[in-house]
Amino acid sequence: MSKATVTLKHLHHQNEHQVGLYFSYNTSLIQAVKRIIGARWSRSNKCWYVKNNPANLQSIFSIFKGIAWIDKEDFFKHESQVESRVIKPKNIKSPKRKNIPEEYAKTLIRRRYSESTLKIYTSYFSEFVNHFPDIDLDQLTDDHIRQFQDYLVNVRKVATNTQNQAINAINPVGSI
Known about the structure:
alpha+beta, 5-stranded mixed beta sheet, 5 strands, disordered C terminus
């Protein structure tokens, strides 16, 4: 019988850099991961996770030693990349997508958001702007934000954290 595999991935969850531990359901692995201090289950990401720090990485390797193979290739190859649940544009009503204003990205940079947050927020903001293809950006109101939020919750059925990130990315529209 071969050893189970635990795949490590970068994860941005709960507004922190985490190590995501992905593996098929296995009670032995679940018991092992629970021995890592601070390990928690993420329903939205469907993985166990711990804060990304050297002590937790050391714990992961020592706890799984002999019981599972650790797939760390992508984790260490792409250390700067952070996985997140980015909303992918769907059902855009117009074949011509609207660009987001350059000032939007400049505002996020000025507020010292990380590179990964910048990418995520611009993706969410683009989704929002293109959800209303016939309305100019300066004409979008709080009611449009509520309509988009209803769309995310009722049609897209996104996780609560994803919904909150999307709303934080577009609100307040008037300040951009």
